[in-house]
Write a structure and sequence with these properties.
Number of strands: 17
CATH architecture of the largest domain: Beta Barrel
Number of domains: 2
CATH class of the largest domain: Mainly Beta
Order of helices and strands: HEHEEEEEEEEEHEEEEEEE
Radius of gyration: 19 Å
Strand content: over 45%
Structural class: mainly beta
CATH topology of the largest domain: Lipocalin
Helix content: under 10%
Strand order of the largest sheet: 2-3-4-5-6-7-8-10
């Protein structure tokens, strides 16, 4: 069964409705966790989703892509819509959680779709950075994609979408964002490998100065799955092994949250079913 699924011609058709959406002009300034905590991501986001070729060296297709989100605390619910040049589309349910400076999300159910002949829509997921472009908010980053069954990876891609109406965040922009860029330095060797994984995956990171460190695993409902470490660590490199089975929690998509002092980092991890 699995071999048959792997042999399918799967193209992750990613993009969304809103042909009127403009691409961001000028550089995108990433925001840090403190800045993101002042924002409300609720509303419509419009833009593009580029689908990788099989070798991931270029893009095979560009789709219109749209999110319609509702934020409650740090939890996100809503829908995504993706549209190709032929008018074929899929509307999918989304769940997500904001961890530090990123929105971690996954699509998990197709609500409505017109499927291209010989192809399927894959579920997108990813950790999207939150940035600003003038007075506009931007979600951007790599968006891996996976088959509905067994969670095998599709070719994946890159997403960049803009909040259509950012009026509810303008006061935060004016009061909290007018100073110099406060982006957190993420060059700490934070990585998770293998990812996707079957049973175990290893979390790698370094501590620049003696610090209080916590390493936690959460699901996309914001629930704590496992506390891998909490305590003081001296400057240096570290690695921790996470086993989903031993944690008593099996899920296709989880989040590693690393806190070093006041700085928060996060990575999304995906387990084969």
């Amino acid at each position: 069964m699995k071999n048959a699924l792997l042999s399918l011609l799967v193209l992750c058709l990613l993009g969304i409705t809103s042909l009127y959406a403009e691409d961001p002009k000028g550089p995108i300034t990433p925001l840090n966790a403190s800045q993101v905590s002042k924002l409300d991501l609720s509303g419509k986001w419009v833009g593009k989703r580029k689908q990788h070729t099989a070798d991931k060296r270029s893009y095979i297709e560009i789709f219109e892509y749209e999110f319609d989100l509702k934020q409650e605390g740090n939890l996100i619910t809503g829908t995504s819509t993706i549209l190709n040049a032929n008018g074929e589309y899929a509307e999918m349910k989304i769940q997500g959680v904001i961890v530090g400076d990123k929105l971690h999300f996954r699509e998990y159910e197709v609500k409505d779709a017109i499927r291209p002949e010989g192809r399927v829509w894959c579920f997108k997921s990813g950790e999207l950075r939150i940035g600003r472009n003038g007075d506009r908010l931007v979600l951007f980053g790599a968006t891996p994609s996976f088959m509905e069954i067994y969670n095998y990876p599709c070719t994946g891609g890159y997403t960049e979408i803009v909040k259509a109406d950012n009026s509810n965040n303008l006061n935060a922009f004016q009061s909290e964002f007018s100073s110099e860029n406060l982006v957190i330095d993420e060059q700490i060797g934070f990585n998770v490998f293998p990812n996707p994984y079957i049973d175990n995956t290893t979390i790698y990171y370094s501590v620049k100065n003696d610090s209080k460190v916590t390493v936690e695993i959460f699901d996309l409902n914001g629930r704590l799955v496992s506390n891998l470490f909490s305590g003081e660590q001296k400057a240096g490199g570290y690695q921790l092994i996470f086993n989903a089975k031993s944690s008593g929690y099996m899920s296709s998509t989880l989040i590693v949250k690393l806190t070093i002092g006041e700085d928060v980092y996060s990575r999304q991890i995906v387990q084969f079913q």
